Amino acid sequence: MPSVVRILAVAGLFSLISGCSLFKFPGVHRIEVQQGNIITQEMVDQLKPGMTRRQVRFVLGTPLVEDTFNPNRWDYINRVRSPKGEETQKRFTVYFNGEMLMATSGDWQPAGWPR
Known about the structure:
Blueprint: H1 2-19, E1 33-36, H2 41-45, H3 53-60, E2 65-66, E3 73-81, E4 87-97, E5 100-106
Antiparallel strand pairs: 1-3, 2-3, 3-4, 4-5
């Protein structure tokens, strides 16, 4: 009977260790994880002053954050975690005056806009 207890203890210990993320086993494939909006410079270059909200949504997609206290601001946030665990974050914000696009700010700048 003691050998059954020993086998169960070893099996339990092994399952506990294999489930921990503290140990990095060789050969385990890790992927790049993207969260939020994927924004490219080509997308941002399509923006023109005076575009409607609908046109901006068509070009950039639905914003990650629509501020309830400031309905004239949309925030696009992109966070990427590399396979090594390093995180990078980029932001892009568009500002409206009513229904018309007025300005942008963030990590990208549309081509041809005044800086």
